[in-house]
Design goal:
The chain is mainly β and about 120 residues long. It is built from 2 helices and 8 strands, in the order αββββαββββ. The protein folds into 2 domains: about 50 residues; about 60 residues.
Length: about 120
């Protein structure tokens, strides 16, 4: 986390495709990296990697139960954004958030966000 867009594309040997806006940020899809998007901080001129979003197909754990078996129990949050349920883990200075549709009784994961946030 924190690398520039140029550094990330060089490290991953890729190029950027079309960006899209979601959850208050501008995300870039890199060519050859299906189901993964990168959010570079547009609030500054530094253009540093702030979030990585993984679609469910990019992740081996398919349900909250799978995640909790490996990472331990987490507090669940209901979000007002698109009717999702969220479980969140803090690993050092990284936050990993898993989302599932609130109406899905199997709690199948539909997205994963990896973020580096400052503690407040």
């Amino acid at each position: 986390m924190g690398q520039t867009k140029a550094e990330v594309t060089r490290i991953l040997n890729s190029t950027t495709g079309q960006p899209y806006y979601e959850s208050g940020g501008l995300f870039w899809i890199l060519k050859g990296l299906d189901y993964t998007s990168f959010n570079f901080d547009d609030e500054s001129n530094l253009d540093h990697l702030r979030d990585i979003y993984l679609g469910a197909k990019a992740f081996p754990m398919k349900t909250f139960k799978d995640v909790e078996r490996i990472l331990g129990k987490a507090k669940r949050y209901e979000t007002n954004y698109e009717g999702d349920t969220l479980i969140s883990y803090e690993l050092g200075n990284l936050f990993i958030e898993f989302t599932s549709d609130s109406y899905d009784e199997t709690e199948s994961i539909n997205g994963i966000m990896i973020s580096k946030r400052s503690k407040e």
